[in-house]
Specification:
CATH architecture of the largest domain in chain A: Alpha-Beta Barrel
Largest interface: A-B, 49 and 49 residues
Strand content of chain A: 15-25%
Mean pLDDT of chain A: 93
Helix content of chain A: 25-40%
Distance between the termini of chain A: 56 Å
Order of helices and strands of chain A: EHEEEEEEHEHEHEHEHEHEHHEH
Number of helices of chain A: 10
Largest sheet of chain A: 8 strands, parallel, barrel
Oligomer: homotetramer
Shape of chain A: elongated
CATH superfamily of the largest domain in chain A: Aldolase class I
CATH topology of the largest domain in chain A: TIM Barrel
Strand order of the largest sheet of chain A: 7-8-9-10-11-12-13-14
Low-confidence stretches of chain A: none
Number of domains of chain A: 2
C-alpha cells in the first residue's frame, strides 16, 4: 500500500500514520516529495486490506493499493499453467481446445439426448445443460431441477460426454455434485461467497463465470475463495460484461483472455452465446476467442431454438454448430491447439 | 412485444411468425410499413417473455419488448405508495423520513452499543450492523455471524432501536430472522433467487439493495421474486452503480429515486456510504437523496473509523453524523418530510 | 509516480529504471518490499506523464500515478472558490444560486422571446438557447446558426437576461462571442482541444460540459486547457454520464458535485434535462442538485414541447418551470443559497 | 416508431396522438392491447426522429424507435461490402488484410523513416503516425504539426507506403489532405460534426474511429455525416470502449466486428494498441480481430518505446511487430484472407 499525504500539512500527521502502520504490523517507508509525503507500507501482502482504513486518518489524501490481493490464483505463486482434469484423458488447460455445448436449459429427454449426440458428433467433448436456472423473472421457466440432472446423466450414459451444469443454492451443492462432472457458478453468483466456500470443499472441477460487472481482479478473488478452501480445480469463464452498448446482450471482453493468462495459472474458457445474445455473432466470437488464446469454449446449441424455454435467440442449431466446428479447426491449428475429432479429412 | 420483420422478405415468413404467435396464445396484429412488416402480439403480459424466442425464426429482424415484465411491484397494479411497517409506530414509506445508521460490521459489544446510543441520540430510528459480511477477499474479516446477531439484539434491548442486518445464505434466513427486524439483501445477492424466494416466505420486512450493475427493471424483477412468494413488505435501496468513474467507489444513481417512484409503489431508501466510499461525500449525498424524494437513508457510522474492520473510509464518526442530521432536517422540511427528534430547538 | 517492479527480478533492472528516472529529471526513491522493489519518482508534477513510458522497460510491472495532473484548476493552487462574473451584479459561484433556462434550440423569434419572458418571470437569471446544434443524425435540425444568435440577442434586449449558447467549431468562436455572454462547450466537444484553446484566449466566461464518458480528472484536464491559455472564467457543468441504465437518457452523477468542490475552485452547474431525458424527472433532480451543493442549474424550457425541434421530451413547459422554481426556493434556503425573485411572498 | 400509450386512459388522448402523427406526415396504425393502445407510425424513415417529441403529449408512456436511423451506411441500401481504394492496387475491404503500423506520434525524421522501413519489411501496407495529437493534458507533447506531416511524406517517399494521419481541427483539413493518403478522425472527435462535414467534401479516404462511449448506432450515424456530404470512402475503426474494467486502457469490443458487418457495408479495422494500452496484449488481440472478421489492423510500433513521446507502453518494438505478423499470417489464412509479403517461405 502507498499512503499519499495531503500537501503542506503538519508533519505530526504523517508521524501518526507511520505509527499506525507499525501498529498494524507493517513497516512504513517515507518518500519526501516536493510538497507532500508519500508513505509505503511494507509487509505481508494478504492482510494489507486493513491498511485501507488509514484513509480515515487526518492528513491522508488517499491510500493506493499496489499489489494484487489474490495469492493462490496468481501466476507468481504458481508460474505454470494449471490443467484441470475432468476425467482420465480429458483436461482443460492443456494443448487440446475443449468445446462444451448443449442447450441453455434441459427441457426433455428427447431434447437433451438428441442434442448430446449431435454436439458429440460435431466434436464437442463436454455436454452443457441447465437444470437449475436463475432467471430474471419469477414468471419464467426455472428449470427441471433434479429431474433435469437425471436427464443429463442419461445423456452422459448414452454418449459418454461428461456433463457441466449450474448450481445456484448452497443447499443443492451435494445434489448437483452427485450428477455433474463439472459444477458451474453462474455470473449472478460470482460473489455468492457461501456457495463458493462450499464448492471449495468439493472434489470436483468448478467452472466460475465472471460476474456481469466484475473486474478481473474481483473475478480472481472469487476464484481465490474456492482455491483457499482446498479445491484447486477451478476453470474461469468470461461471458461478457455489462456496458452501455445494446447491440449485443453483453460486451465480450476478449482482452480478458490474455490479461488472465498473464495474471493467473487457471484455465480460461469463453462463452460467446451469453456474451453476444445473438446466434449470428456466435461463430466469429468462437474463432476470435481461440485466436486470443482461450483454453475452451462453452456454446449454446438447441435443436429447435424458436421453441426453446430460454435463450433461443442465442442458440445455434446442431447443423450450424457442426459448420462452426469445422471452421474453428482452422483457427485452432493457427493457435497451435488440437481439436481432435473435427474436420479430420480436410 | 413488437416483432420487427426484415425488409423486403417473402410474406410467407411473416405469416409463419403470426401462426407461431397464435400458437403461444397471443393475438398477432400486423402493421404494413413502407418496406417491412411489424407485428404486435397482444395478450397477457406476464408470460410474454416466451415471445422473445421468435427472434430465432427466419425473417425476424428483432423482437422489442414494450411492456414492463413485473406486476406486483408495479404502480399500475398498486397505484398508492406502500408503507412498510417495521414495528407499531414506525414505518418506511410514510411521511416520516427514516434514517438507519450504524457500523458496516458488528465488531464488539462496546462498539455496537456505543454506536447505537449515539445514532439514536442524533435521530436515527433503526440500527444497522453486519454480522454476515460478504467480502471480496476470502482473507478479509467475514463477520461475527451469530455472535454478531446477539450483540445487535443487545444493542436493541438497550436502545429500543429495531435492527437491520444482512443475510447472505438461504441456510441462515431462519437464524437471521430470529434476531433482525429487517433483513437486508446485499447488492451482490440481488439476483440470488434462492435467497429471494425464501425471504418471500417470511413475515418480516426485507430491504433489497440494487445490484451494482442491475438496471432498474431488473431491480424490480428481483423485488417481484419476494412479492410473488407472498411477502409484501419490501423496501428498495439504491446504493450506487458501477461505472467508469473512479473518483467514487460507485456512482450514486440519484435519478433512480424519481424513476422508482413512478414505476413502483415500494419505498425507496438511499445508501450514500457504499455509493460514494468517502466520508467527505456522504453528508451532501444524504441531502440530495432527501431532496430527490427518497423515503429513508442508511448511513455507516463508526466510533473509530481508522480502526474499523471494514469500510472505515466511508464511515462517519458519531459527531459528524449528528451534525449531518441537524442539517438534514432543513432539507427534510423543504421536502415536506418529518424527521422527529432532530434539531427540535432550532 | 510510483514504479512497481516485478517480483524477484535481477536488481540490475531496477537500477536501470532508477537511471532513466534521473535522466528524465526526477529523483528516484526505492522502497525494498518483501519480494519486490517499488520506486517513487520525486519532482515537478506537471511533466510527470513522461514517466508513464517507463512501463516499457524490462522488469517494470506497472507505473501508478499518485498525483493529480491538473494545476490551475486545482484547489491546491487556488484554495478559495472562484466566482465567475457574467455581468456586473451577476456571478456564478457566489452565494446566489443561478438558474439558466430556455429551449434546447432557438426556433423562431416568438418562441425564444416568449420563453425568455416566461423564465425571467419565474426567476431564471440567464437565457439558454442553441443556435449551432450538434446532432447525432445529419438529417436532424442543425440549428438556425447566426440567425439563431440574432434572435437570442433580441430576447436579451427585450428581457435583460444574459445569454448562453453553444459553439461547436473553432471557426465560429469569434462569431458566437460577438453575441453570447457565456459560451458553452457541449459534452461531445469536451476534448475538442482546438476549440478549448481558442476559448482560452477569449475574454468571456466559458461553460464546459462534462463529456458523456469523461472521468472527473479528464473533465478538469479539459478545464485546464482553457485556464492554461489565460481565460480564468470557467464554469463546469455535469450533465449525466453514460452507463448501462436505460431508464434515463444518461445517469446524473450527483456525487460529482462534492467531488468537484473538493478538487477544484471552479463553480459547478448541473443540467438535469440532458441527464435524465424525461421531463417528469427534472424537478426532483433540480432539488437534489441544489442540496448536493451546486452553484447553478441549466434547465430546458419550451413553450410547446411536443412541437420542439429537439429534446421535447425533456423540456419543461413554462408553468411547470415556475412551479419548480417555487419549490426550489425551499431547497435553496436549506442549502443557505439565495434565489432572489422567487417565491418572495411565501 | 411505436408509440406506447398509458394504461386505461381516455381514448381521446390516443386520438390526439394519431392526429399529431398525421400532421407530421406519417400514417398512424393502432393496436388495441388488453389494457392499453400501441400506435405504429408508418412512413419515410429518415425524418422519424421528430416523432420522438410525441413523448411530451398527454397519455403517452413512451416512444420506441424501431428502425435504424442511418441510411447510406446501411447494408439495406448497399448490400455488397464496400472496398475503399487507397491507391491503385491497394484497397481496404477486399480479400487482402491490410495492416497499418507506425508510431503514435511522429517525433523525428530518423524515428519515422526507420519505423517505416521496419514495418514495411514486416508486411505493413500503410504507415501511421500522428502530427496533430489530441492529448488529455495541455502540458503533454501536442505533435509536430505541419513539420510532422512533412516527415511522414518523406517516409512515404522513401518506402512507398501510403500514410494515414489524424486531423483534429476543421481548419487543418485542407493542410492535412495535402499530405495524407487517409485522414483519420480520432475517437474524441467522432461527434465533431463540423469536422465530419468537411471531410465529407474531400476526395480522400477517411478512417473514422469509434468514440470511447459511442454505441454502434451512433458510430454509424457519424459515418453517415461523411457519406451524406458525398464522400463514400469511409473506413470504420473500433478502438476499445470505456467500461468499468481497469486492467486494460479500454475494452476492445470485438463483437462490434460481426455486428458492423451485418449492419453496414463499410470496411472495419481494429486498433488493438489503444484498446488494450499494454504491449503484451496487442498480438493476441490482432489475431482475435482477424478471426472475428476485420478487414485491417492499425498497430502502434515504435523503435524505442521507453523514450516515446506518447503511448510508449502500448507500442510494439519493430522486432516484436515482425514476429506478430508472421503468426498473424496463420490466422489470416484460417480466415481466408491474404496477407502478401508475410511469412512467404513458411
Amino acid at each position: 500500500m502507498i499512503i499519499v499525504m495531503q500537501k503542506n500539512i503538519d508533519k505530526a500527521l504523517s508521524r501518526a500514520v507511520e505509527a499506525r502502520i507499525r501498529e498494524l504490523g507493517y513497516e512504513p517507508h517515507v518518500i519526501h516529495g516536493e510538497s507532500r509525503e508519500v508513505i509505503g507500507a511494507v509487509g505481508d501482502e494478504r492482510g494489507k486490506m486493513v491498511l485501507q482504513s488509514l484513509e480515515s486518518m487526518p492528513g491522508v489524501e488517499k491510500v493506493v493499493p499496489i499489489l494484487k490481493p489474490y495469492k493462490l490464483a496468481s501466476r507468481e505463486v504458481c508460474p505454470e499453467p494449471s490443467r484441470v482434469e475432468i476425467k482420465p484423458g480429458l483436461e482443460i488447460g492443456g494443448n487440446e481446445l475443449i468445446v462444451m455445448a448443449g442447450p441453455c436449459a434441459v427441457e426433455s429427454e428427447e431434447q437433451i439426448v438428441q442434442t448430446a449426440h449431435a454436439v458429440k458428433r460435431a466434436g464437442a467433448r463436454i455436454l452443457r445443460g441447465g437444470a437449475f436456472k436463475p432467471r430474471t423473472s419469477p414468471y419464467s421457466f426455472q428449470g427441471l431441477e433434479e429431474e433435469g440432472l437425471k436427464l443429463l446423466a442419461m445423456a452422459r450414459a448414452e454418449t459418454g460426454l461428461p456433463i457441466i451444469t449450474e448450481v445456484v443454492n448452497p443447499r443443492d451443492v451435494e445434489l448437483v455434485a452427485r450428477y455433474a462432472d463439472i459444477l458451474q457458478v453462474g455470473a449472478r453468483n460470482m460473489q455468492n461467497f457461501a456457495l463458493l466456500k462450499m464448492l471449495g470443499q468439493l472434489d470436483k472441477p468448478i467452472m466460475l463465470k465472471r460476474g456481469m460487472s466484475a473486474t478481473i481482479q474481483e473475478f480472481l478473488m472469487s476464484a481465490e475463495y474456492i482455491l483457499a478452501e482446498g479445491n484447486r480445480r477451478v476453470i474461469l469463464c468470461e461471458r461478457g460484461i455489462r456496458t452501455f452498448e445494446t447491440a449485443t446482450r453483453n460486451t465480450l471482453d476478449i482482452s480478458a483472455v490474455p490479461v488472465l493468462k498473464e495474471q493467473t495459472h487457471l484455465p480460461v474458457v469463453i462463452d460467446p452465446s451469453h456474451a453476444t445474445g445473438h446466434v449470428s455473432l456466435v461463430p466469429s466470437m468462437c474463432y476470435a476467442a481461440v485466436a486470443a488464446g482461450c483454453d475452451g469454449l462453452i456454446v449454446e446449441v438447441h435443436p429447435d431454438p424458436e421453441k426453446a424455454a430460454s435463450d433461443g435467440p442465442q442458440s445455434l442449431r446442431p447443423a450450424a454448430f457442426a459448420d462452426m466446428m469445422i471452421k474453428l479447426k482452422l483457427f485452432a491449428d493457427a493457435a497451435d491447439r488440437s481439436l481432435p475429432g473435427v474436420g479430420g479429412s480436410l
